[in-house]
Amino acid sequence: MENFNEDNIKYLEAKKRVKRLKGFYIHALVYALVNLLIIAQGVQTGSSLYSINTYWTAIFWGVGLLGHAASVFLPNMVMGKDWEEKKIRELMDKNH
């Protein structure tokens, strides 16, 4: 059985954070590549680069990407820096 000391908990939290960051970076890369292709295809087929219709996908997907960014980078601002850890300890103490 693993020994869950403070260092192990911090490692698991850091690992979880890295996984969330990686997910966001992949999302941002796919967003950029797909929207560049959509815009290039639109221009190639005669759509104007200055037409709003060229950018609808980028706009709506961008809103979703901003939401993803907020969930990755802002949770400490909303719930406080150590909120999750305090809540876990509170629930563990309550069950014992």
Task: Describe this entry's structure for a reader.
The structure is a single chain. By secondary structure, this protein is mainly α. The protein has one domain (13-95). 78% of the residues lie in helices and 0% in strands. The chain is built from four helices and no strands. Helix 1 runs antiparallel to helix 2 (56-73). The radius of gyration is 21 Å and the shape is elongated. The relative contact order is 0.09. The model has no long low-confidence stretch (mean pLDDT 86).
Largest beta-sheet characterization = none
Separation, N- and C-terminal Cα atoms: 19 Å
- Total helices: the number is 4
Number of domains: 1
Average of pLDDT: 86
**Global Rg:** 21 Å
- Unreliable stretches (pLDDT < 50, length at least 5) are none
Shape: elongated
Strand content: under 5%
